[in-house]
């Protein structure tokens, strides 16, 4: 309950109790005690959580407009949510009818169905200075003509059920320069005005029929295949279903190449986690409090595990120490930095201000912490 309530607070939502009352009409004493323990903490945080505004510079488009209501929630949307959360991105989930201009970058995860109206809206957004990252079949125009958003010809599914990507100094810069497997079938594209950012590499064969390899896929044959990523102005396209792959397998190299593209298109992001000094499971949400004239960085860490087939569990709260996070404050001057739940002022030796960013070393996060950056 702590995690669920605190996660709601990080997103600016209210939290309330909803459950089935026993037919005898009596509350469980143990449950009532738990509610009291958690909601007393929620009440104490109200001055710092009420009437705050979201800060998001990235939007992730949901495929729900074309969603089959008999199916589960989109795997690609789940994967995108997980990946961007781990990267510390500040993002909203939007639909095609919402205002695009609020965001610096829009992500089109794997399966956004194209329409003339959406294509025009995205092109207008890009011409107005917006950035787009599309993956796999998102905005596939379904014909042999050049896709005006990506600058590619879309040729359908790949011949290979699993192929590879080859990192380079621009995309996958911190990865070894050797092949990394992509666990699900991608798309075939040819450049038609775009430039190649990342190559795919073909396997020897598909692991099927008479062709067998003791691994789940054949090794790399070393032959460069169709482009794995292209750039057309301020639009980057990945030919693999990055987000469905991440939901199904969570390969670190998929997150790494996506993060590099974010840096190419959007070097000034609102929040940045330090890869070497911040755990991937730390959730960070930045909110603005007008009444307090401050930025509120919500930090949440409750390690979740899946020991059972049908249930995720949080068995213990594990404190984190010395987590490094960068917060973009722009031209605003910082008066003080405080850890609200710890009740401590963060010393100036634990943060620096440069180039619009406040570089924080957060001494301790015991499950949930709010770092208040008071502005002058």
UniProtKB/TrEMBL annotation:
SUPFAM superfamilies: Class I glutamine amidotransferase-like (SSF52317). It comes from the Bacteria. Residues 82-139 form the Beta-galactosidase trimerisation domain. Signal peptide: none annotated. GO terms for molecular function: beta-galactosidase activity. GO terms for biological process: carbohydrate metabolic process. This is Beta-galactosidase trimerisation domain-containing protein. It comes from Bifidobacterium longum subsp. infantis. The lineage of its organism: Bacteria, Bacillati, Actinomycetota, Actinomycetes, Bifidobacteriales.
